[in-house]
Amino acid sequence: MSSVAVFFQHLTNGLTLGGIYALIALGYTMVYGILKFINFAHGDILMVGAYMGMFAFDFLRGDAPLGAWTFISFLLAMIFSAVFCAVLGMFIEKVAYKPLRRAARLAPLLSAIGVSFILSNGAAWMWGTQSRKLNYPFDNSPITILGISITPHQILVLIVSFAMMVALTLFVGKSRMGKAMRATSLDQDTAQLMGINVNVVISLTFAIGSALAAVGGMLIALDYKCYPTLGTMTGLKAFVAAVVGGIGNISGAMLGGILLGLVETFGVAVLGIPQGYKDTIAFVILIIILLLKPEGILGKVEKEKV
Amino acid sequence: MSFFQIILIYTCIYALMAIGQNLITGYGGMLSLCQAGFFALGSYATAILTTTYGWNFWLTLPVAVLISAICGFAIGMPTLRLKGDYLAIATLGFGEIVRNVINNWDSLTKGPMGIQKIPQAAILGFKFNPYKKTAFLIMLVVVLAICYFLFRRLARSRMGRALAAVREDEIAAASMGINTTKYKVSAFILGASVAGIAGSFQAVYILSVTPGTYTFMVSIMVLCMVVLGGMGNFLACILGAFIIQFISYFPQLTGLTNVIPAQAKQIIFGLILVVMMIWRPQGIMGREKFDYSGEKRKKGAKDATRN
Q: Which InterPro entries match (chain A) (predicted)?
């Protein structure tokens, strides 16, 4: 392969990985934008989404051979898992975060860590610690396009993640509810005075974020299988992506996710960082970004007021 | 009885970490999630120095403290400028980096295999054999008592008051002339050092170290202890450590290991965090009350003037 083809090969791989990170990062950034706290349990919702998708897909597919029906049932499973996680996300918000909305800053954070622990260990209890395979709904042998080898899975990831991002941008930017979300994120009290039902907005934020996480979780599980701690590292990296892009900023999360995917892929492939240290890259980036530009690439500098 | 002694030994080891966490989180109001990282540094410092270089255990203690303190400074200095949530993630990241490095630096740490055959701790020829638990337990209780009184004195000194002020309102504290960075970093360094001590004792108790011991789970357990006992109260941290260890070893203690699933304790830890935050954020014992004048508080008119 020529060096240009190699470059585009890594670019494709990086974009795919980054697309998934971006999907998950969106959930962190949306919740942070409105409630100003990190939803630590987001990564574990992703894991639940992967499991639910797997169960639904296996149920719908039955013994059918690969074909159009398996692909349709995979999409149906994705919708089911997204709805399930949306409800789960709203439920968690009502039970564990809502009572703490006016509490000290540390309280919801600790509560979220607790929820994350309950989810991941509850999953290990119910479904066992061994990893389970989420089968590809299509023949996943690579296709070569213009000298770049790309798997149907990567194509699916690219299409789904970018479609989701466009849909979310349109929703937040153009719809009435999106306007309410932006208003709540700017100033919760004033938004309430303007007749916006803040509770509905917050529930919706959790629902959308969790649904995106479920989709991201299924896309990851296709490559990495389902296991109870699937969400931990992925969730952390997606959070790093959200911070790098500027937390609270939706386009920032997308940019950060894609950037992180690219840096990880190129870091291992081009800079020769050993595979064992791959997970470290994200945290080093996080610490560097926090030092140089704590508000993130697209974030706004917030002046602290007394 | 034997399992009860194990619970007490682990209570002591974890209480050391909880004391450090309490200084950082309870007094300073900074959510640090890397006690496991400092714990690992302490353990590996002792393990490597005693096995590869043949040092005496007691000589490795100051090294473990020093390494943890330096790392505490290195991670604290840049990240403590961050607000609570960012700090939590940055410290979490640091804990993961430590584990990642330990797992991959084969020539020094022997990677995932870990280091075995760590010599037992001894004073003047008397060996603290971890299998004869009583002597080992007494040694730990002494160490814990020393650390407890040192930290309690510290928290009641100028530093403790400064930290409390920073926790309540950083800007107000800074405008009163408190060097906020200095106190925050000091709290972080001290919290890290005491976790390093805990790590050293963990190494001579188990007599082997493997990276699997120092997961994020440890940091969460320590956090649970502080939250459960009561943030800002050192005695409460020890109580919290005991309760958490009791829950951890409850299946072994009662012989119900076949009935109770292995994940039950982690689920309980998670529930403890959520439930405590909602219904009793101050913990079982609550925050320690300060009495700045040093006199006994009297009822009546004096109280009114004081406030």
A: ABC_transp_permease, BCAA_transport_permease
